[in-house]
Amino acid sequence: MNIARELLRERYFTNLKHSNDLFVGIELELPIVKLTGEAVDFSVVFALFDEMIEKLPLSIEKSDDNGQAIQLVSDENNDRILFEVGYNTIEFAFDKAETIGEVEQRFSNYLAVMQPFLKNQNHLLTGFGVNPFWDKNDNRSVASPRYEMLMAYLKLGETREEVRVSQNNYGAFIQGSQVQLDVTRENLVTTLNTFNAIEMVKAWLFGNSYLWNGQLDTLISRDVFWEESMHGIFPENTGVFPEAFESLETFLDYLMKTALFTRTSEASTFYFEPIQAMDYFNHDEISAFDLLGNEFVLMPSPYDFEAHRSYQYQNLTTRGTVEFRSTCAQPIATSFTVAAFHLGLMQELASFETLIASHAFYEDYGRDYPQLRRRFSVQNLSSEEIEDVATFAEDLVNLAVVGLEKRGFGEEKYLTVLYHRIEIKENPAVKALHLLESGKTLSEISEIFADGKDI
Predict the structure, then answer these.
(1) What is the pLDDT of residues 368-420, one digit of tens each?
(2) Which of 37, 203, 239, 258 lies 20 to 30 Å (CA to CA) from residue 390?
(3) Closest by alpha carbon to 137, among 213, 231, 82, 70?
């Protein structure tokens, strides 16, 4: 018996759902900006958490090593509001819901308290996939073992030639819009294959992480940070799947090539050079570091697989969901377009699979999915490329609308803005660049992306 394979099988396949009931889990990561263009004032964002506890039905669930609240939980459901990686990003991790509308209502209630407080202090939550003042901010990690471990692990890349990302703190200034949908043993492979095949369309439609004042020629810098950092030492560990899976077992073959790089317990946290799962138990011992940089020797243990996590853009979780994690955070007023797009297509999975199998787009551009994702993430596409990807995008949005209409909750309204993007051929990143060219400052654009004007 291959121990690593069986540990991965148990970890990821055990909780696959037995029902086709479709719930939605939504996570929104939004950057905090200081509207003067200077570094975020931590005293303001710490006071924000105090304000939320006072004005909203929220309680402190976690504090950092300095006693500062870093994660709040709702007294009414399982919503959580937290600092994500650094103190310049707020994550909203919403309890799973039957409809997008109920999540939107809770989000609006939170923002009604948060935004006026921040604005009064010359700060704001805004809707970018990368903090526009990333190079001005203090991007230290949240003072907690998990985030400190991640920063230390990523820093190992400074000595590796194949790691081309210079910032090891990128997690503190990139923001995503993530969706989790329930999957079964029967539809998992189809879900992974179909959504993976449209990553180039999602790049064009939702791109919103242009690295302001940076050196990356892409509208989705988050891809570069994930794939060319320590997380991407083994390409199977992150990014787009290069080809379709034939079965659960071939997907498990792929998971065997993903990496382990940490061991955690209540007492200690260690990190080490990444080791592929299939090779893990071939090591008699592992050289590791604790958070103080002290060296240790660890013996490989089945327990270590409890900390296993990969970062593919269609990522199977241990909760029996697929997490779609390739999409940038969106302008706040259109935050739920991402969830609606995925949910509508999932509702029409059989028709979605048929569309992907025969769409003319692939006849012209092929099916090198990782290459297509990068190709349609660049700033300057040809007019022909734009027309072709826009046509494909419209076909997908049309199908998503059909799925949402069948659900009967009015969720198709969230996709209206996507038709507008397709018509004017602008995703949020392109819109922001055009606003900058028109004379708007990054602070002014941040305000626009916070309230939805001109989007």
Answers:
(1) 999 999 999 999 999 999 999 999 999 999 999 999 999 999 999 999 999 99
(2) 239
(3) 213
Helices (H), 14-126: 42-55, 100-120
Neighbours of 266 (CB within 10 A): 6
Instruction: Tell me, rounded to whole angstroms, the distance of Cα 183 from its chain centroid.
Output: 19
For the chain, give the mean pLDDT.
95
Angle, vertex CA 204, rays to CA 348 and CA 162, nearest 5: 110
- Tokens coding 73: 């939980």
Give the chain's radius of gyration (CA, Å): 21
Token readout for 359 is 């769409």
96: helix, strand or coil: coil
DSSP E strand stretches across 241-376: 259-264, 269-276, 286-290, 295-298, 311-312, 314-316, 321-324
pLDDT in tens, 260-305: 999 988 789 999 999 999 999 999 999 999 999 999 999 999 999 9
Is 0.85 surpassed by the pTM of this model?
A: yes
Cα-Cα-Cα-Cα dihedral of 354, 356, 361, 364, to 10°?
-100
Q: What is the mean pLDDT of residues 27-56?
A: 97
Going by C-alpha positions, the residue among 180, 429, 117 that lies closest to residue 317 is: 180
**Contact by Cβ (8 Å): 403, 344:** yes
Residue 429 class from Cβ within 10 Å (0-12 exposed, 13-18 middle, 19+ buried)? buried
For tokens 């290069």, name the residue: 242
